[in-house]
Amino acid sequence: MDKTNDYADIHRTDLRSRPELVHKLLEEDQLCEFKRQTKFGRRKLSGKLLFLLWAMRIYVVFMLALVILEILHAFH
């Protein structure tokens, strides 16, 4: 596709749905600004996945406490 067709396509398409078109048309600094403005929202997580994440957080805190306890016992 040449640039003439790319410019014509701008009026018919949403730029966010055609990233390859954006890369062809924008200068480097404009591209950086476009990427900065494109934000991704938070993903909705399932109940099982939330449970798993919380279980892992609790496990990490528990393991940190055990490691600190073992270090304290090693110094005494």
Describe the protein in words.
The chain is mainly alpha-helical and 76 residues long. The protein folds into two domains: 3-37, no CATH class; 42-76. It contains four helices and no strands. The protein has helices at residues 3-10, 19-25, 28-37, 47-75. The longest helix has 29 residues, at 47-75. It is elongated and about 65 Å long. It starts with a helix and ends with a helix.
Topology of helices and strands:
Elements: H1 3-10, H2 19-25, H3 28-37, H4 47-75
- What's the number of helices? 4
* Global mean pLDDT: 78
What shape does the CA trace take? elongated
| Beta fraction | under 5%
β-strand number: 0
- As an assembly, this protein is single chain
Low-confidence stretches: none
What structural category arises from helix and sheet content? mainly alpha
- The gyration radius over C-alpha positions equals 25 Å
- Helical fraction equals over 70%
Largest sheet: none
Give the distance, in angstroms, between the N- and C-terminal Cα atoms.
74 Å
Order of helices and strands: HHHH
Number of domains: 2
What tags apply to this protein structure?
4 helices; 71% helix; mainly alpha
In short:
The chain is an all-alpha fold. The chain has helices at residues 3-10, 19-25, 28-37, 47-75. It has two domains: 3-37, no CATH class; 42-76.
